[in-house]
Amino acid sequence: MNQSSTQQRSPWAWVPSVSFSQAVPYVAVMLLSTVMYKNLGVSNDDLAFYTSWLYLPWVLKPLWSPIVDLFGTKRHWTVLMQLVSSAALAAVAFTLHLPQFFALSLAVLWLMAFASATHDIASDGYYMLGLPSQHQQAAFVGVRSAFYKLAMIAGQGGLVYLAGELIKSSNDPAYAWSVVFGITAAIFLALCAYHQLVLPRPQGDHSTAKTGALWADFIETFRSFFRKKGIVSIIGFLLLYRLGEAQLLKMAAPFLLDPREQGGLGLTTSEFGLVYGTIGVAALVLGGIAGGIVIARFGLKKAIWPMLFIMHVPDLVFVYLATAMPTSIEVIAGCLAVEQFGYGFGFAAFMLYMIMVADGEHKTAHYAICTGFMALGMMLPGMISGKLQHLLGYQNFFIWACISTLPAFFMTALVEIKPGFGKKQG
């Protein structure tokens, strides 16, 4: 296929699949690992603390994000990191049978997180090159979010359900999770091969390195970001927008899986995969699509406040679940669907805000810096969430998590949003 025809390929041929593959290693590192370690007997404190450290590559990725801009193409980096991630997924499956499985699997997951973070840098920049207009970016922000969350359904829903069924039949969690990670590695390798064949080659996708000016370009990338107007408010917004959700996210799986005598809801791994990983994430997908539609209709400036409320107020359902302790799977699934829809709806606004902040000459690296601060805002609260839950119990912990959403409202009042940004023109 010649370059001209490749450049004209419909975004529908690659935006959904790249978004899906962008999520697969993240789902494995942040979501599958949490349930896996819970099944393998790791405590809530250790689980929350050590898996939160896996955010570190996403926090630090701005330090190497200019390298993606300066060397090679975004397309090349995207495909290469998919290949590395598929190998890491297979390696996790192998480590689970070894005596020091916890330390060894964490090391491989950290490597996968590094590859995934680099993949994010490349693919985020690739999106902005392949979808050059603000309207296209706004129109596809919901699609990107939706297929990212579909990967979460496939992972946290389908693969967790499969792990639960394998545990039932074999009574061997290590075997079950080895099979799950092996299947995931095969799927991701297939996605890598597909993208090598079909990804377009945008004219703007090229190395920006200049002879004798590499270090100056590297420094200027960061300097130009921190010279942005209102940078203190921008950073505060990126760090605090998901403060409550960062804590909820780490303790959701342990709460749903822990037995009732320990304050949890006592779901099996298969039931967890169904109600949280499938029904809950499906609601998340719908919320992301709805959020993208609302932004395209009204623009980010008008939409952000109602989206903020709809994102955070439903966190109260966890307080209800920890208080009422319902036994009905339907009730539990309905509550999780409400919370997840709100989260997906509000997160679409956060994604487009980062695109707005990153817009400019170094948009790939600046977007990576934004997501680095976002990851730091997830990592630090997540690290202490296990200890807080141990001290407070699930009910009081979820009350605290809801209180922790208040800084997001304060920072939203401080940030400046361009009028009409993201709104469909005409």
Write a structural description:
It is a single chain. With 426 residues, this protein is mainly alpha-helical. The chain is 80% helix and 0% strand. It is built from 17 helices and no strands. It has helices at residues 3-7, 15-39, 44-53, 56-70, 74-95, 101-130, 134-170, 173-198, 214-226, 231-240, 243-257, 269-298, 300-312, 316-324, 329-358, 363-403, 406-414. The chain is globular and about 60 Å long. The chain starts with a helix and ends in a 12-residue tail after the last helix.
Largest sheet: none
- In total, the number of strands is 0
Derived from helix and strand composition plus strand pairing, the structural class reads mainly alpha
- State the shape: globular
Average pLDDT: 88
Helices and strands, in order, run as HHHHHHHHHHHHHHHHH
Short recap of the structure:
The protein is mainly α. The protein is built from 17 helices and no strands.
Secondary structure topology:
Layout: H1 3-7, H2 15-39, H3 44-53, H4 56-70, H5 74-95, H6 101-130, H7 134-170, H8 173-198, H9 214-226, H10 231-240, H11 243-257, H12 269-298, H13 300-312, H14 316-324, H15 329-358, H16 363-403, H17 406-414
